[in-house]
Amino acid sequence: MSAGGSRTPFGRVRSWLYVPAHRPELVAKALSGTADAVVLDLEDAVPAGAKDAARDAAVQACAGPRDRPLWVRVNAPGTPWSAADIAALAGSGADGIRLPKAADPDAVAALAERLALPLHLLVESARGLEEAFDLARAHPLVASVSLGEADLAADLRIGDPAHLGWARARVVVANRAAGLPSPVAGVWTDLADADGLAADSATARDAGFFGRSVIHPAQVGPVNHAFTPGPAEVARAHALLDSLRAAETAGSSAYLDERGRFVDPAVVAGARWVADLAAELGVDLGAATETSADIPEHEPARTPVRAGKENR
Known about the structure:
This protein has helices at about 25-30, 50-60, 80-90, 105-115, 125-130, 130-135, 150-155, 165-175, 195-205, 220-225, 230-250, 265-280; strands spanning about 15-20, 35-40, 70-75, 95-100, 120-125, 140-145, 210-215, 255, 260-265. The protein is an alpha/beta fold. The chain folds into two domains: about 10-225, TIM Barrel, CATH 3.20.20.60; about 230-295. Helix 9 runs parallel beside helix 10 and helix 11 (about 230-250) packs across helix 12 (about 265-280).
């Protein structure tokens, strides 16, 4: 594929793999791996003495061929490396820029104009969280607002990021109220706890997030699985949409399906999201030919995450 990569809509990416940009062997491995998107890191994973080399490597990678979205996390505004990062990446072949420590909507708007690239804003302070909605609508190039949970917890003096549920809900609302896709969940830092990652990713999905940032290739599989609708879920969605077509033929917009469930436009929107997502991700649709009565009731249904505008 030519430079610029696959323009997968932001709200369809399940796994975002961070890789330190100054490690070319890791960048090559990430770009040939199974993550839906790669994020070249110029910030936390890069020591001060390697910042210039990381920036140069990121610019080179963004100009090269690839088959998945390639984003770059720049150094935070106010750091000694921020201005050089922005100057080097403005108008580059990156699919987008991750901006840490976002807090000022006006500064974000000015940066968007200069970069001319989609922005994924990371909220990592109390002020940024207060501004989440205004950040989400600061500029048409703002693609999403997510949490940098470790820094946010430190700023709020919260001992355990597990207690940030209210903050997570706030960014879910901010993104959706601004017409953006569901936000990306933050990093799971315990690399040894794959079961915890899987369970927490399922919780994040059901809480209104879609996709997750990961810091190791071993985390990609559990995350991709958590955010991929299963065959039975796809079958339920298709069965509901089939019943909708029958109801529309009869002139009804709210009705009971063949299993006695009340179906209205909101339920239909969720089913369409699941069916469209499954088609885009290449989920095996063989099970979707079953009728809803054939689908085991014991399989838990995922809460559908409704798609928003793919970019602003």
